[in-house]
Amino acid sequence: MTDMDEAMLIAFVDGELDEVNRRRVERAVAEDPALAARLDMHVRLRERLAGHYAPIEAEPVPAAMRTLLQEDAKVVPFARPVQARRRVWAMGGAIAASLLLGLGVGHFSGGSDGPISIERGTMVAQGELASALETQLASAQEEAPIRIGLSFRRKGGGWCRSFEGQALSGVACREGQGWQVQQLVPGAGREGAYRQASSGDARLMATVDALMDGSPLDAAQEKAAKDRRWQ
Amino acid sequence: MSFESDLLAILPRLRRFAASLSRDRADADDLCQAALEKALRARDQWQPGTRLDSWMYRIMRNLWIDEGRSRQRAARTFAPEEAGEHVGHAGDRDVEAHVMLSDVDRAMQSLPDEQREAIALVLVEGLSYREAAEVLDIPMGTLTSRLVRGRGALIELLGEAA
């Protein structure tokens, strides 16, 4: 099946496909090494672009712009980002408050050492993303570069976890000894940056909803699953 | 929560968007500053409850397009063609900015405007296709075909390393 439409492949990388079409792309890619190579190029391009511009968002804002906006604005909001984030995550159902700590932050390195590799036509987590998925608990990750959002049981069995980094966020599911990335969207940006109910989160939540069997794991269940090495 | 503090909160992302559109960081901050000034003047046109970031992306993108057109006009009117690309820029800043440009910056700059803005909104800013199409005021199909062409060009320019 080499006639996979380029737009479809790109929509897959952009997290725009529903579950049915995602599976179609995954099957096509698994059967076709040339298609897998194209997918790999698109994933790398996306990582490289997102990673290239991400540091700008973390820079201090120039004084001239700050002054322009502070003439009437004496109060800079700190509480609001957490509230905004909570509404978004709450769409997924009953979620332990401990999972809501903090916003996504951290650096994904780009290039071939990036967080994702293509193996047998699927996107597989590697490096610090793989270790975060493997070992990090949502309740203990204050300074972590990649943050785990929800952990949950997948329909039909197995485990999945959502994650957020500065450059890239997504959902990954346990496959064998590794983590297969189901969906990838641009990251949450710098910590403390105010984000309105973001499209990235909405797309990820739709994926989580489609994959999830029941409710997200609470802190104790998450730890138990981690201790069993997500098997 | 005032209009200004809402703007201040999304400002880091607006600067990133400006940088992905502009030829260098100095131009990017000029664009960003102009967009903020325009937003403050036009604040009555923003409808509370709608997305401020999308509104700002649209303002910034329209300023960038207008500026590009006037720069092209100025280049055609006042300078021979080969010098046209330098019109409107102080020499020193130009040299410095070009030295600092990375492969990604150069590749983005080489894209036609319509592809660059689509790539910037979706791949850098993380908007959904629907949101990006709304900001650019184009149909979804037009957006996706620009994304396909823009990505193809970037992959070609950046080579295997992409």
Automatic annotation (TrEMBL), chain A:
Highest taxon of the lineage: Bacteria
Chain ranges passing through the membrane: 88-108
UniProtKB keywords: Membrane, Transmembrane, Transmembrane helix
Entry protein name: Anti-sigma factor
TrEMBL record, chain B:
Domain RNA polymerase sigma factor 70 region 4 type: 103-154
Alphabetical keyword list: Sigma factor, Transcription, Transcription regulation
Secreted keyword on record: no
Pfam families, per database record: Sigma70_r2, Sigma70_r4_2
Molecular function per GO: DNA binding; sigma factor activity
Signal peptide stretch: none
GO BP annotations listed: DNA-templated transcription initiation
Chain ranges of the RNA polymerase sigma-70 region domain: 11-73
SUPFAM superfamilies: Sigma2 domain of RNA polymerase sigma factors, Sigma3 and sigma4 domains of RNA polymerase sigma factors
NCBIfam families to which the protein is assigned, alphabetical: sigma70-ECF
Family per record: Belongs to the sigma-70 factor family. ECF subfamily.
Protein name: RNA polymerase sigma-54 factor RpoN
Organism: Sphingobium fuliginis (strain ATCC 27551)
